[in-house]
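Q:
Got a chain?
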Amino acid sequence: MTSSEKNNNRNRIEPFSHFINKMDRLFSERPPKGMLKSLDDFFGSAKERSFPVDIHETHSEYTLTATLPGIPRSQISIDVLAHAVTISAKHVDRKHKNQGLFQKEVSAGTFSRTISFPKPIDEANVTARHRDGILTLHLPKIRGIGLKSIRHE
C-alpha cells in the first residue's frame, strides 16, 4: 500500500471514529439534571391528551367508539371528511378551590384525535350518540366505490 492510499483510508475512518467517540461520551456521561424527567413529562403528556378509540368494520359501515369520561356533549366537536374523522373534546376543570391539594393530574385541556379510514365515508349520513362518557359514531361507507375486477380475453 502506498502512502497516499494509507492517507485516504485514514481520512475515511477518522470521521467515523470521531462519531463513535461522541456517541460513547453521550452514553457514558450523566445526563443533565432534569432531562429524563422532561422527556417523561413530554411523552406522558402526549398520551394523556388523547383518548381510547375502538373501530369496528362491516361491509356497509365503520362503527367508532370513543371513551370520553367526564366530558359533556356540548364540549365535543366532530369533523367528518371523506376518509377521516377528527374528534375534539374540551375538558374544563370546574373545581376552582385547590386548597390542600398535594398533586393535580386532571386539569383543563383540549383533546383531539384524527382517525383515517381506507374507504370513503358517506359524510351526509354519519350519526353520533353520546351517553355515559361513550361517544359512538356510525360512519356509513360510500357504496359503489371499491376495487373492480376486469376480465379480459
Summary: Residues 3-28 form the longest helix (26 residues). The chain is about 25% helix and 30% strand.
